[in-house]
Amino acid sequence: MKLDAFLAAQAMTQAAFAARIGVSGPTVHRWIAGKARPDWKALGAIERETKGAVTYRDFRDAAAPRGMADAQAPLAAEARSLGLDPEAIAAKAVEEAVRAEKARRWLEDNKEAIAAWNDWTEQNELPLAKYRMF
């Protein structure tokens, strides 16, 4: 629901709504007119005050890119013009991010066991250390 429709349904003025969420009346007017968008703090206040009837989605420009692919389209076209494969680059980047996150989580999940092993080896030396060639 758009903010202006919500205010009309509640018979509330822009100034009254602005006072309830802690911004100025002209700020609410600019939001409704599409000349400005609320920041994240204001969006939270709007969602709370409207009990979820008005959300951040209601402030998106219909012509604005909706997803990562749309937002990155100009860069993808430029990459193609340079002989690069943006889809392969993106897939590799996602693969690398997933791998790094899995490794980070594994280390986090196993930090106690790793610390215990390190403590044990400091006290007892490495098992079969006398057979190591390095």
Write a structural description:
The chain is mostly helical. The protein has two domains: 3-59, 434 Repressor (Amino-terminal Domain) (Orthogonal Bundle); 69-123, no CATH class. The protein is 64% helix and 0% strand. The chain contains eight helices and no strands. The chain has helices at 3-10, 14-21, 25-33, 40-49, 68-71, 73-81, 86-109, 111-124. Helix 2 (14-21) crosses helix 3. The radius of gyration is 27 Å and the shape is elongated. The termini are far apart. The relative contact order is 0.06. The model has no long low-confidence stretch (mean pLDDT 87).
What's the number of domains?
Answer: 2
CATH topology of the largest domain: 434 Repressor (Amino-terminal Domain)
**Total strands:** 0
Largest sheet at a glance? none
Order of helices and strands: HHHHHHHH
Strand content: under 5%
Roughly how much helix do the residues carry, as a percent range? 55-70%
Shape field: elongated
Q: Which architecture of the largest domain would the CATH scheme give at its second level?
A: Orthogonal Bundle
Specify the CATH class of the largest domain: Mainly Alpha
Report the span from N to C terminus: 70 Å
Classification by helices and strands = mainly alpha
Q: Helix tally?
A: 8
